[in-house]
């Protein structure tokens, strides 16, 4: 499962490891600046989903449970340090389900950052994944998650559409299943003008842990983190420092 993991800044002696889960249509490289900012005291590994960039010839996944099963398996060799999970949008749902799987197997994470995603038991009837290609691309432009110049490149668009559609299908068909409740802190992050999640929907994350819950609201839309990178890096660093370096296993 090594094809799932990208490590941009290896560290000889990190005190913790942060695992980043990209948004719909996103890739591991999205988190390169976070990795650079936290190295070397925190080692960042970023998940590369199948169907994009160097994995573009592999079949896409379109189900959050399938993503989480694969992610939990891929992370097995990396659990020798305290593990913090950070997921944005679709990535938050995958990170949450991955944390549940790790906890149920006795390998708990020490914190979960859920960014730009409504809580697992809130529901919306979304059908973006059923739109024709033009409609799917219009949604991507509306969310401002991809540079407009990149979307003007027909060849690139053809390459990203299958993964993008599969990711949207995973996000929009996700349903929370009863079972494991997390014990780790959950830190929810949300933009105050995000069309994909309201502040109240983000607050639902509190119901999914017996540990502490924190909600931070930023100015901005769905990709508020692009304008608040330093604040988010500081929050990650502070949370990891507060938790202490105790192996998660």
From TrEMBL:
One Pfam family recorded for the sequence: Thioesterase
GTP-binding keyword on record: no
Record key words, sorted: Hydrolase
Domain Thioesterase TesA-like residue range list: 19-240
InterPro entries: AB_hydrolase_fold, TEII, TesA-like, Thioesterase
SUPFAM superfamilies: alpha/beta-Hydrolases
Keyword Repeat: no
Protein name per UniProt: Thioesterase
Source organism: Actinophytocola gossypii
């Amino acid at each position: 499962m090594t094809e799932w993991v990208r490590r941009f800044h290896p560290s000889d002696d990190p005190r913790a490891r942060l695992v980043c889960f990209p948004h719909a249509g996103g890739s591991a490289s999205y988190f390169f600046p976070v990795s650079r900012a936290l190295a070397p005291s925190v080692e960042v590994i970023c998940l590369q989903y199948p169907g994009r960039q160097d994995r573009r010839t592999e079949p896409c996944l379109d189900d959050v449970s399938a993503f989480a099963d694969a992610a939990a398996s891929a992370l097995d060799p990396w659990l020798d340090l305290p593990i913090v999970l950070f997921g944005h949008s679709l990535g938050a749902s995958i990170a949450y389900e991955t944390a549940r799987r790790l906890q149920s197997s006795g390998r708990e994470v020490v914190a979960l950052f859920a960014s730009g995603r409504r809580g697992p038991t809130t529901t919306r009837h979304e059908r973006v994944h059923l739109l024709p290609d033009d409609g799917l691309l219009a949604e991507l432009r509306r969310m401002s998650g991809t540079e407009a110049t990149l979307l003007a490149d027909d060849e690139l668009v053809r390459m990203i559409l299958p993964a993008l559609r599969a990711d949207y299908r995973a996000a929009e068909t996700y349903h929370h299943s009863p079972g494991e409740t997390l014990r780790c802190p959950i830190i929810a992050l949300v933009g105050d003008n995000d069309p994909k999640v309201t502040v109240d929907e983000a607050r639902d994350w509190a119901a999914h842990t017996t540990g502490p819950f924190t909600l931070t609201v930023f100015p901005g839309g769905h990709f508020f983190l692009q304008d608040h990178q330093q604040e988010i890096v500081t929050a990650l660093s502070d949370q990891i420092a507060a938790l202490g370096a105790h192996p998660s296993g």
